[in-house]
Amino acid sequence: MGSLGSMNSCNEEELLIQNVSEIYNNLSTLESLKPSKDVNALFTQLVLTCIPPFPIDVTKLSKNPFQTHPSLWGSSYDFPLDHIDTFPYYTNYVKLGRLEYTILSNYITNQIPNHIAFIGSGPMPLTSIVLASNHLKTTTFHNYDIDISANALASKLVCADPDLSKRMLFHDTDIMDVTNVGLNKADKRKVIDHLAKHMAPGSLLMLRSAHGARGFLYPIVEPSDLPGFEVLAVFHPMDEVINSVLVARKIKNGVKQY
User: Is 63 a residue whose pLDDT tops 90?
Assistant: First the structure.
């Protein structure tokens, strides 16, 4: 029975990898990844394939389609803010923003933060927009991205809103020469190490990760990847929200705060 169960598990893993590879290959043949019927259908198929819980560690695969097509992790969109809910995965951002705020609120009981930095915000900073609009309505968001054109699009997106245009600031900043914080785990680790050196002691770091097959969709970051920080919470959603969430605190003078 044990051997049969192991064989079935191997077959399921091979089928999962085959399905994900096929979807990535289909996406890579498209001329553009801007929202369209074909693009939306393929991304939806990819998400639905990776959501079910499956005991797979994508970081240990010898052939990982995620590494073959890293450019498929994100693309640029330019929509007026009043039509932002037409973005295919806007609902997921709303749910993720609510989750992140709920987790974060457990560690900011004294007062709402006056400033939040978001690194790698991109041309459509949905996370900042959702948090600023729905949860942190007095907080100023400093959005950092090395791509000047991405920041220009993002700024244009919120400029017509009298509130967000004042609280959403965009900085053309090179952080450790990393062009996109979400590109891969190695780049994220470089940024984390940089933040560990320069963040104020006791300040909070929230970052996104993934779990199981969802690692095909987003780079996996483990608590062990956070030297210099005390990990306070790790949450792995089991519903349609793709990202796991980690919250950590910058260690004061090398000593964890209990």
Answer: no
